[in-house]
Amino acid sequence: MSQEAEYNAAIEFYNRHGGAVETEDVYGEGFLRWAYGNPLGRLTVAVAVKRLWFSKWYGWRMDAAKSRAKVQPFIENYRVDADEFAEPVERYGSFNEFFYRKLKPSARPVDSDPATVVFPADGRHLGIENVDRAERFYIKGQAFNLAAFVGDAALAREFAGGSMVISRLCPVDYHRYHFPVSGEATAVQILPGSLRSVSPLALRRNLSILWENRRARTVVNSAEFGKVLVMEVGATCVGGMHSTFRPGAVEKGADKGYFSFGGSCVTTIYQKGAVQLDADLLEQAAAGREVYAKMGERCAVKAD
After folding, report:
1. Which of 45, 114, 178, 272 would disulfide-bridge 49, Cβ 3.0–4.6 Å?
2. Are the CB atoms for 246 and 188 separated by under 8 Å?
3. Tell me: the pLDDT tens digits for 71-112?
4. What is the DSSP string of 67-105?
5. pLDDT per residue over 124-157, tens digit each?
6. pLDDT value at residue 142
């Protein structure tokens, strides 16, 4: 397969629930392929789309009362399970209110074993056993710049050789994110940057989007797993990353925050030897695929 064919290939992921490989139904796929694969599209991204004002403008549109009209068609088109919602659909005053909706607690049970780590969000998850020696990051041959991503060279050195899980949320997903472990959480530190898509259609061409985009960094000191980094990454049309927790003691599965409209991701990084990622994450990552799973499900265990 040529490099261009790899760039443009359909996005496949392994569905942990169904036990099969599926093809992603990409929201706004035509625009994404044009924006990141066409020279004029890439120019448009550089001039306007990646700019903060563009995402703020789009977020403003999704906050407008008339955006409510988009909610029911979206639910029907993408088969979103309204029975999970904490509130009736008619109570959402805008598309954004629907987008960052809360769910019933029973909709996302959290694995209670203290020796396990859970996914911080719904979505498609890429498991990297050793962030320094990964063979694939969405496409073969791309290296991850941990120091640039973390925004602190000294802190990055503490996670050299560690494991990482990139949890990618599509617009069709539940868009609140949670703590993957229990511990003492620091205040959020915002790392400024641009806002480009974090879809594999963009990351296949330019992995540096992950450390050039706006990011939010939290350190969790866990009795079971040591120091853990939890970092949200903003993306195009994400109106904001909104933290909802107070620094201090946090429980696994507790609310950490939510994204306004758009696709985005949460990245969790563990120190070397702290965890063993689940087998399906590693098997699928070796094939260049993510694993679809939901918040609260196990993604790793404490290493022996």
Report:
1. 45
2. no
3. 999 899 888 999 999 999 999 999 889 989 999 999 999 999
4. GGGGHHHHHHHTT--GGGBSS-GGG--SHHHHHT--B-G
5. 999 999 999 887 888 887 889 999 999 999 999 9
6. 83
Nearest to 201 by CA among 39, 25, 37: 37
Q: Which residue has the higher pLDDT, 5 or 87?
A: 87
Is residue 304 part of the annotated active site? The answer reads no
Closest CA to 219 of 258, 189, 254, 257: 189
| Set 67, 122, 175, 260: catalytic member | 122
Cα–Cα dist 46/147, whole Å? 24
Q: Which residue shows structure tokens 């969405």? A: 138
Cβ-contact 124, 21 below 8 angstroms: no
Catalytic, 178? Answer yes
Catalytic option among 67, 178, 199, 278: 178
Active-site residue identified among 55, 194, 243, 264: 264
